[in-house]
Each structure stands twice: as structure tokens, then as C-alpha cells.
Design brief:
The protein is of the alpha+beta class. The chain is built from five helices and 15 strands. 18% of the residues lie in helices and 38% in strands. The longest helix is centred in the last third of the chain and has 14 residues.
């Protein structure tokens, strides 16, 4: 896997001749670490450049955008800041050193940071079983931006999806992992939000549910 720095002029040159059918090499690629099961034509926008198109996917382990060119996988590193990426009918923006998917935009914006942990395989525990309680652990360098996990991951490794949820409120991004942490971000309306979550059976791991909750929160603060 390689990092490659692209100017937006170079990105424009990559717009043409995208085939709707993926290569045989891509079909054999292990996509467990990616957000989507295949690379798709996506739109990359910058505030001061013409939109461009690339075959993109999102690596949830390295938390890098990855593009496919000539059957090779590259981390997307541009010479100018990326403003927005549209991929698979979803909208992504950069935040800190990763991207988040915007599930609802308004005065209060809700977003998801798609990330995963790469878990090492366990060790034999006897009688044909495997133990992950004593020797298995999380690979320490999965957050490195080297892009080494854009290649196939050994089958014995496990990928554990572990998203982080974000809310943009009063000019500041706040992250949360649970219902109680979310409610603390809305102290004036905690009772109403807690009741809405219960009555509507809101699941944080479902973007449609988060969008419904976000719309309700925006209504409360109008």
C-alpha cells in the first residue's frame, strides 16, 4: 500500500473511464476493514477546486479514505484540504485526522465516526478450542497512517466495528458513546430526549434512527 499526494488537477485526470464492473483482483480483495463492500465512484470536493471523481472506500481501521487506481490501493492525500466527499449516497467531511459521515445537518448536526479495531487471534486452549481471554489483544498500531492495512488482513484476525458518535452544537463538536453521554449534551431537554429515545426505540448503530433523533433535537431547540 502506498500513500500518494494528489493535486486536484491530478484528481480531475482520474475522473474518466471508470468501469462499473470491478477488476478480478478487487473481487478477491478482503474488504472486511472497509466501510462498504466495494469501491464506488465518489465525488471529492474542495472549497477552491472543481469537484473530482475517484473510486473510493473508507478504511475503518486506518480511518483513511482509500482510492483504487490500476488495481492498486492508495490513501487519499491531497495538496489542498478536502471539504466534502459524497460516497454511496452518503456525505463525509474531515474532522481532526479522520472522516465522519453526516447523518443529519442542522443547527445541531449528528455524525458517525466509522472505525474498527483489529484484534489479534487467540492461542490454542486445548481440546480444539481457542482462547482470546489470555493472549489475544488489540493490535497497537492500527491507528497509524501508514496504510499497511489496505492490503488483505489475515483471516485469523478479527475486525471489531467500534464507532464513535459526534454532535455539532453551539459551534463545537462533542463525541459520545452512550445514551447517557448524549443526554448530558442536552441538559435542558434531557427528559424529553430520554423519552423520545425510549418511545421510538432509537438504536445508535442505525443511521436512520440517529437522523430521526437529530431532527427531534433540532425541533426542541427551535
Amino acid at each position: 500500500m502506498k500513500n500518494i499526494i494528489l493535486t486536484f488537477t491530478a484528481l480531475l485526470l482520474l475522473e474518466t473511464n471508470f468501469a462499473p464492473v470491478y477488476s478480478q483482483q478487487e473481487e478477491k480483495h478482503d474488504f472486511r476493514q472497509y466501510l462498504f463492500p466495494a469501491f464506488s465512484v465518489s465525488v471529492v470536493k474542495s472549497s477552491n477546486s472543481k469537484p473530482s471523481k475517484l473510486l473510493l472506500n473508507y478504511n475503518t481501521i486506518t480511518e483513511n479514505m482509500v482510492f483504487l487506481q490500476n488495481s492498486q490501493y492508495f490513501d487519499l492525500v491531497t495538496s489542498v484540504p478536502v471539504d466534502t466527499i459524497y460516497m454511496n449516497d452518503k456525505k463525509f467531511i474531515p474532522l481532526e485526522d479522520f472522516y465522519v459521515e453526516l447523518v443529519y445537518e442542522g443547527a445541531i448536526t449528528f455524525a458517525i465516526q466509522h472505525r474498527s479495531n483489529l484484534k489479534e487471534p487467540g492461542v490454542p486452549a486445548g481440546y480444539g478450542t481457542t482462547s482470546q481471554t489470555s493472549a489475544a489483544g488489540y493490535v497497537s498500531n492500527v491507528k497509524m497512517k501508514s496504510g499497511i492495512y489496505n492490503i488483505n488482513i489475515p483471516k485469523e484476525y478479527e475486525i471489531e466495528y467500534s464507532p464513535v458518535y459526534w454532535i455539532y452544537k453551539n459551534g463545537k463538536w462533542n463525541k459520545y458513546f452512550s445514551e447517557s453521554q448524549l443526554i448530558k449534551l442536552f441538559p435542558e431537554k434531557s427528559k424529553e430526549i430520554r423519552q423520545f429515545i425510549k418511545e421510538n426505540r432509537i438504536k445508535f448503530d442505525k443511521p436512520a434512527d440517529l437522523a430521526k433523533l437529530a431532527a427531534y433535537c433540532n425541533e426542541l431547540y427551535r
